[in-house]
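Today's session is about reading a structure prediction critically. Students often jump straight to the picture, but the first step is always the sequence itself: look for stretches that repeat, for charged clusters, for runs of hydrophobic residues. Only then move on to the predicted structure, which in these notes is written as discrete structure tokens rather than atom positions. Here is the chain we will use throughout the hour.
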Amino acid sequence: MKTKVVIRAFLFLLALGAVGVLLGAGSKPFAPNVDMKSGDLRVPEGYTSWPVLGTWSHANTEGEPGAKEYHVVYTQPETLAYYQEHEKFPDGAVLVKELLGTKTMEMTTGPTVSHATDLKGWFVLVRDTEGRFQDSKLWGDGWAWSLFMADNPAKTVSTDYKKDCMGCHLPARDMAPAHAADADKWIYTFGYPVFQK
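Below is the predicted structure for this chain, in token form.
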């Protein structure tokens, strides 16, 4: 009799734990910076502790030589590990491109040396392999797309990714590896040495 009671109690606790795992898995958002009800993005907190994929330098085209702006790109550690193993972005991958102003000056290391100064804003992308939020003009072609200004990391200034974002990403498709997943061809992966084998 006691054995039956113990077994039933054990099975009940086991079932309760399984239900808790299932409920917990369903409530966790697929990306840390997405409102799962509205699809709104924000700049993820703590992204500066993520691995840096690479840095882009935009040169001054007028006036003094040097860098006009730096773009430093971050992603989650798990995204980096997944990409290095599978050569594609996983669902929920977040890319944060930090936009930084610069100052250029003469230094002992060279006559024209630029360094980062103030934060101007962020471009944020979230990989979406399931076609979520199809009514949103900021979700499509396998990604969620948004630009944020430095004064408000919670509210995008983008209104339509096809008008606001695609023009800059279109050339990436011609430069992408032939074997890349179609949606991944929107990303300039050749600029990220940690992705290269």
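Discussion point for the tutorial: Residues 2-27 form the longest helix (26 residues).
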